[in-house]
Q: What sequence folds into this?
């Protein structure tokens, strides 16, 4: 990681629902990442002991912002609630389980820090180590990614990835509406419509089984087709995004020197 990435503040948006067993370890892993990190957790009306653990982490300073939802609204709703509090230069969505490794975040940050990218997707299918699990999940992911790519004209390998890192001003300009797991195709569609410069980077993946707490199921896969059509074909659409680097102030003597060196009109 170079100095440009180290100089950017990263807001990590963590939607949480019934993750009492993993949330403390996940927050600790995020804190250990060598970046300037702001952690924003949204408890989506958990029914186990998650909220109590989050309160303890917030009181200890491990979490910067804690939002407690009064009713369960779904992942998309929680992401929007967290985004409203983000103050970093860049934001990323982080699931509250341990499937995604926060130590991949500096790799995702690099193309943004270099000025090449406005958004970076972490792909589970670009060669990194991953846990071998469900065949039909992989088939479904490929079909959904293909359908999304056909409408966005992108060539992503993993549209459904949780790790979507985006410049904060761009993320906040997107008209996000989805409540549940539709946030993944919606965010992809809106970034494509904004003509954002999107990169992919390989990430590891330690998927879990349903017995271990995995929540997404076949119904969410079926719903994803509707979300892909809805968010690609129906309004509202975001404005076209143009990245504007921060202006660099030159010392007064440099400005005078440049002015005196400029050619005179008619010369």
A:
């Amino acid at each position: 990681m170079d100095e440009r990435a180290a100089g950017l503040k990263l807001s990590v948006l963590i939607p949480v629902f019934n993750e009492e067993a993993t949330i403390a370890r996940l927050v600790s892993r995020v804190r250990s990442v060598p970046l300037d990190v702001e952690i924003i957790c949204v408890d989506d009306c958990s029914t186990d002991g998650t909220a109590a653990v989050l309160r303890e982490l917030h009181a200890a300073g491990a979490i910067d912002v804690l939002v407690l939802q009064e009713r369960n609204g779904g992942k998309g709703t929680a992401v929007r609630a967290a985004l409203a509090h983000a103050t970093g230069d860049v934001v990323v969505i982080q699931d509250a389980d341990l499937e995604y490794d926060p130590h991949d975040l500096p790799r995702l940050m690099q193309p943004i820090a270099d000025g090449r990218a406005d958004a970076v997707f972490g792909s589970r299918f670009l060669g990194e180590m991953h846990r071998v699990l469900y065949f039909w999940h992989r088939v479904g992911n490929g079909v959904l990614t293909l359908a999304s790519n056909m409408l966005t004209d992108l060539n992503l390998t993993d549209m459904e990835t949780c790790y979507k890192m985006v410049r904060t001003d761009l993320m906040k300009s997107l008209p996000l509406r989805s409540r549940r797991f539709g946030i993944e195709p919606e965010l992809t569609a809106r970034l494509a419509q904004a003509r954002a410069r999107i990169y992919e980077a390989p990430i590891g993946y330690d998927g879990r089984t349903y017995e271990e707490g995995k929540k997404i199921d076949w119904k969410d896969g079926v719903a994803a087709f509707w979300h892909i059509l809805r968010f690609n074909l129906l309004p509202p659409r975001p404005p076209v995004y143009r990245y504007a680097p921060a202006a660099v102030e030159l010392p007064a003597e440099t400005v005078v020197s440049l002015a005196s060196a400029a050619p005179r009109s008619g010369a």
